[in-house]
Amino acid sequence: MHFDLVETIKSLGYFGVWAIVFAESGLLIGFFLPGDSLLFTAGFIASVPQSPLNIWILIIGAFLAAVLGDNVGYATGYKFGRRLFQKEDSWLFHKKHLISTTKFYQKHGKKTLILARFVPIVRTFAPIIAGVGSMDYRTFMSYNLIGGFLWTFGITLLGFFLGKSLPAEQLDKYLLPIIGLIIVVSLLPSILHLIKENKNK
Fold first, then answer.
1. What pTM does this model have?
2. Would you call 96 helix, strand, or coil by DSSP?
3. Domain hosting residue 90, numbered range
4. What's the helix, strand, coil split of the chain in %, to 5?
5. Contacts (Cβ under 8 Å, ≥6 apart) of 92
6. What does the alpha-carbon distance between residue 101 and residue 74 come to, in Å, rounded to a whole number?
7. Which end of the chain is more exposed for a tag (fewer CB within 10 A), N or C?
8. Farthest CA pair distance, the chain
9. What's the pLDDT tens digit per position in 97-147?
10. Is residue 176 classed as helix, strand or coil in its secondary structure?
11. From CA 71, how far away is CA 148, in angstroms rounded?
12. Are 52 and 14 in contact, with CB atoms under 8 Å apart?
């Protein structure tokens, strides 16, 4: 599985990685995309000698894509507002994601825009909910920049420096377990939230 992800990143290059980060950061169809594992693996690939990816070009582009994606999400929420909550469910859209993100906002406030970066699904819908709630744009942009910076630089550099610390011949051996761990850790908050909701019901 990890070979497929590695080869996909290599074949898509910078623009492929940036496009996925952009989509997951604020497009309604982007909630299922693998942002955390993608950034980590891309950083890992950038650590390999003669890599097709330069770590700084990769990170700066990913940061800009994340910030722009959030802005699109904010604009979507601001423009369409409550109509999103009246929209019928489809295979690409589920109102429950908007509702769960709204609850996340109620619990964590403005810092949701930072925390949400590290929570799949919530990451996609947080800027949309900020737009629905007409959050002050300067406030939104400030938290958006901080969250985007911590997420793209943090996850990608984690992959990069971990790759640098491992012997080249052992990179393939460790990559799959690490990606699996990242996926589990990133999904854990959502799983715990679902368990808590079921108990309350």
1. 0.78
2. helix
3. 2-200
4. 80, 0, 20
5. 28, 29
6. 14
7. C
8. 54
9. 777 777 777 777 778 888 888 887 788 888 988 888 878 899 999 999 999
10. helix
11. 11
12. no
Q: What is residue 89's DSSP assignment?
A: P
Nearest CA among 21, 187, 24, 28 for reference residue 94: 28
- The whole-angstrom separation of Cα 164 and Cα 101 is 36
Nearest alpha-carbon partner for 76 in 13, 27, 18: 27
Tokens of 148: 């985007």
Tokens of 68: 């722009």
- Cβ neighbors of 3 (< 8 A, separation 6 or more) are 172
- Taking alpha carbons only, the member of 14, 121, 24 closest to residue 66 is 24
CA distance 126 to 87: 17
Compute φ and ψ for 37, nearest 5 degrees.
-65, -30
Top-confidence range, 19-23, 31-35, 64-68 = 64-68
Q: Supply 195's token pair.
A: 């368990």
> Whole-angstrom Cα distance, residue 17 to residue 30?
13
Structure tokens at 7: 């080869």
CA distance 160 to 48: 9
> For the chain, how many structural domains are there in total?
1
**Distance between CA 117 and CA 1 in Å, rounded?**
24
